[in-house]
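# nightly structure sweep
# worker-07 picked up a monomer target from the shared queue
# config: single-sequence mode, recycle default, output format = structure tokens
# input follows
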Amino acid sequence: MLLSCKKRGCTDINAENYNADATHNDGSCSYNSDDSINIKIIPTFNNLELELDSVYNTTEGYGVKFSTISFYISQLTHQNDTINASSLYDFRDNGSQLLSAELDYKSFPSIQGFIGVDSINNHSDPAAFDNDNDLNIENAGTMHWGWNTGYIFIKIEGKADTLSTGLFDHNFSFHAGTDAFYRQFSFDNLVWEQTGEHAHTVTLSLSMSDFLSSDSNTIDLKNEFITHSSSGQFALTEKVVDNFINALSPQ
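# output follows
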């Protein structure tokens, strides 16, 4: 009679000491602690990199200038591996950089995450988070509602010329938040670019032209120009969140 036996060793293919012959993980896996990843998000308009305060044209023929593109991305994961808790993206202050972490890029061939902040943290005291946490009130700044419990998940602001006068005197302000609009997304087959000896970067694109005009939802800035996610603004807030998620994709 033949008896099978388990060969012990490291069975994680992402580990430095992966053993292809091992059939039982003995907990000996080791990883390169120098590995790091970066995630960047580049806003675009009609496939060109967007610059804040520059003029772009919508499908309706309006001139538009974006002054603020900020949002929270939370719980980026792949299977049992986690990248972050919550990270604040602020295009004006930080450019295209979302986050960096000491992790192995090979652990993240795909990712899933959420736009916004989970309900527990969303209703926590913003002053109680560590000083280096993006949810700390000093770091969140105007991304936390002073008049309402919780964070602004997505903040898009700017000015539009809806009358073709050359005057950008029509403000728009989209502040999407509340637990109802905490939305999930996922990306497969990520392309990680080596940007250092042990550093890799993945770049996402945020198409602001698609944000304003997707296949199914168009935001008409002349008539749909403000939401603070109150009960009477549900329809526009939902459109803002749906269009935002559809506008985000890997490069």
